[in-house]
Amino acid sequence: MELEGRGAGGVAGGPAAGPGRSPGESALLDGWLQRGVGRGASGGEAGACRPPVRQDSDSGPDYEALPAGATVTTHMVAGAVAGILEHCVMYPVDCVKTRMQSLQPDPAARYRNVLEALWRIIRTEGLWRPMRGLNVTATGAGPAHALYFACYEKLKKTLSDVIHPGGNSHIANGAAGCVATLLHDAAMNPVEVVKQRMQMYNSPYHRVTDCVRAVWQNEGAGAFYRSYTTQLTMNVPFQAIHFMTYEFLQEHFNPQRRYNPSSHVLSGACAGAVAAAATTPLDVCKTLLNTQESLALNSNLTGHITGMASAFRTVYQVGGVTAYFRGVQARVIYQIPSTAIAWSVYEFFKYLITKRQEEWRAGK
């Protein structure tokens, strides 16, 4: 009976029989309170006859403090699901971004904005053309994001305990994001090379295996990591800005660090937009290193473009300063929903898995 579950204070903290109150008055008051509880529980007057009950901050599982022994697994599963969904949903925009970053695109592949680009690609090259290379991206995104989020969460907690015990440290967040990027990019760099070559206009590759075989035979295994240092140069500051901005916004929108979908979406979107805009020049150089555009190669005396310095020099020679910001619109448009999806899905699955673990432990 609910009255007994509230302890000595009566119903939800209601008054008990005391000095100056007759047994008849107490019985009448208790009956009135019981009827009020019944109406509130059945959805009638929303508990108008009982005072509000303060929810204890410790009620329910705290998904930020995962059960011992399950933390890494939980983060890896949640991260893998988030990474796959993020890349799959945003893949058509990613295709447009790659093309808009081309230094000297074919006249048929010059686009004014993202929507026009998507419409023209579908109309002239087929409905599924913007999705070419999605399979290899999804395959790589799962393990890459599993390592990424698991490493970030572990290092964030470890470094925060050292730098700011019992609190949140922006330095720890940024440092953890940088180290997590090393693992993520090591797994994703070969995928990026294949994906971007298949996304380019008039790409000769229709299947992933054809692209992998051609790159391996013509350029060697090193071609799959040709842009790795540039990608790290881009992604390390990107992720540092991204994680620091996300955690900073979470402190304001979700200070209790509970599962709050709207705060995760808003913080993730803002963090992605800021980081994407700041690192666009590096992304342009990364795209050039991955695609090895033929026109850009003609302006480069050494044949293949290798290294960040060579890429920066070639971009400037071909398009000037403005070339460093090619595709910035598509990049920001891609990152806003991309990071919003990643964080909201990741936090949801982290919450869901932790809740199931707590229920399983409670039922043992």
Automatic annotation (TrEMBL):
Protein localization: Mitochondrion inner membrane
GO MF annotation: an example: ferrous iron transmembrane transporter activity
Solcar repeats: 70-158, 168-252, 259-352
Record field: catalytic activity: Fe(2+)(in) = Fe(2+)(out)
Gly residues composition-biased segments: 1-17
Membrane topology note: Multi-pass membrane protein
Keyword Cell division belongs to the record: no
Keyword match Repeat: yes
SUPFAM superfamilies: Mitochondrial carrier (SSF103506)
Cellular component, GO annotation: mitochondrial inner membrane
Pfam families on file: Mito_carr
One record GO biological process: iron import into the mitochondrion
Region of interest called Disordered, as start-end residue ranges on this chain: 1-28, 40-62
Sequence ranges of Low complexity compositional bias: 18-27
Keywords assigned: Ion transport, Iron, Iron transport, Membrane, Mitochondrion, Mitochondrion inner membrane, Repeat, Transmembrane, Transmembrane helix, Transport
Protein family: Belongs to the mitochondrial carrier (TC 2.A.29) family.
Function: Mitochondrial iron transporter that mediates iron uptake. Probably required for heme synthesis of hemoproteins and Fe-S cluster assembly in non-erythroid cells.
Protein name: Solute carrier family 25 member 28
Organism name: Moschus moschiferus (Siberian musk deer)
